[in-house]
Amino acid sequence: MSKFNRIHLVVMDSVGIGAAPDAAEFFNHDANDTQSDTLGHISEHFALNVPNMAKLGLGRIPRDKALVGVEQVATDQLTGYATKLEEVSRGKDTMTGHWEIMGLNIQVPFRVFPEGYPEDLLEKIEAFSGRKIIREANIPYSGTAVIDDFGARQMATGELIIYTSADPVLQIAAHEDIIPLEELYKICEYVRSITLDDPYMIGRIIARPYVGTPGNFTRTPNRHDYALSPFGHTVLDSLNEAGVGVYSVGKINDIFNGVGINHDMGHTASNMAGVDRLIETLKLPDFETGFSFTNLVDFDALFGHRRDVAGYGNAINEFDARLPEIYDAMGDKDLLLITADHGNDPTYVGTDHTREYVPLLAYSKAFTGQGVLKVGHYADISATVAENFGVAATENGQSFLGDLK
């Protein structure tokens, strides 16, 4: 019998909590990640107001330096459990982080293209699509800046805007009035088909449609991600094969390419829309047992990569303020786990993710105890989920289910 009827995992995308032991091996431009600390540096430059996460133990997580403004609640006054987790995979991107959280160990990293995509790939895309590609956009670029800089040209010429980022992604931006969605998706599907393996092995191909006029472009909700499937059997597969409900919220379905997910609750337009969708999911009458998996991407996409400290800090405060609503929607034997998939320190050099520990916070109305768990690894989450539902775990991670009293 399951210890918890339902487990709800929320990933605060990129909310790291200090440099990982191997951070010297990962770089942002010319600097390694040893001085990165997403939550720590935000707390030093922005007034965090996170009383709910503090009560779960956020301020008690072992660190060399306390989080500024985050209460270190006395152990006997905590309402949950807390610790931090270390990544073992050779990457610091979204897919690697999420796949490891679900039990994989990715030792061959996805490809990134800091100088842009090679000419031979661009020529294949041009031959298939019948459209030229704007070569000047073929570098790591902000998604909003690239359409500001090249959207007018695309409207005039019908060329494709193809750009990348510090992540292993190839993004194609297209004005919906110039390149219809059906055509954009067809091009992205082709690009996906030719970049599954070396020498490209790109994590995701992303359709980025937009509308508007020069100086007033906006991206639409019609984004579509074409991902690789996980490189091995994850705990999501184990749950699905055992007939356990697996509910995805936000971009989780894209990250896993739908594998192991049997109830996709759809994309969400913002962090707060993601929380709304999670709460709706928790209230579904048919969701009596099972696992929900939510990604809140704004921390990363809107604030981390753009090095917006105030925006990032405000987003953390907004999420914390919604926790009581999530608690209210939970059943008496539900477990909530809050974590992250990597860091993205908005005070750091460059615009890349940062190699960091991530926090782990746990809450349940069924808890009779509380405290700080031992420092673990990302895959410990998958092992815990697997043990709770009595399904096969992977060879990675150790369950902490027995430590939750």
TrEMBL record:
Cofactor detail note: Binds 2 manganese ions.
A cellular component annotation (GO) from this entry: cytosol
Binding positions (Mn(2+) 1): D13, D341, H342
Catalytic reaction equation(s): 2-deoxy-alpha-D-ribose 1-phosphate = 2-deoxy-D-ribose 5-phosphate; alpha-D-ribose 1-phosphate = D-ribose 5-phosphate
Superkingdom assignment: Bacteria
Enzyme class, spelled out: isomerase
Protein localization: Cytoplasm
CDD domains from the UniProt entry: PPM
Record-listed Mn(2+) 2 binding positions: D300, H305, H353
Domain called Metalloenzyme: residue spans: 6-392
Cofactor section: Mn(2+)
InterPro entries: Alkaline_phosphatase_core_sf, DeoB, Metalloenzyme, Phosphopentomutase_DeoB_cap_sf
EC number: 5.4.2.7
Pathway(s) it belongs to: Carbohydrate degradation; 2-deoxy-D-ribose 1-phosphate degradation; D-glyceraldehyde 3-phosphate and acetaldehyde from 2-deoxy-alpha-D-ribose 1-phosphate: step 1/2
Record keywords, A-Z: Cytoplasm, Isomerase, Manganese, Metal-binding
An example Gene Ontology molecular-function term: manganese ion binding
GO BP annotations, alphabetical order: 2-deoxyribose 1-phosphate catabolic process; 5-phosphoribose 1-diphosphate biosynthetic process; metabolic compound salvage; nucleotide metabolic process
Role according to the record: Isomerase that catalyzes the conversion of deoxy-ribose 1-phosphate (dRib-1-P) and ribose 1-phosphate (Rib-1-P) to deoxy-ribose 5-phosphate (dRib-5-P) and ribose 5-phosphate (Rib-5-P), respectively.
Family: Belongs to the phosphopentomutase family.
Descriptive protein name: Phosphopentomutase
Organism: Pseudolactococcus reticulitermitis
Lineage: Bacteria, Bacillati, Bacillota, Bacilli, Lactobacillales
Gene: deoB
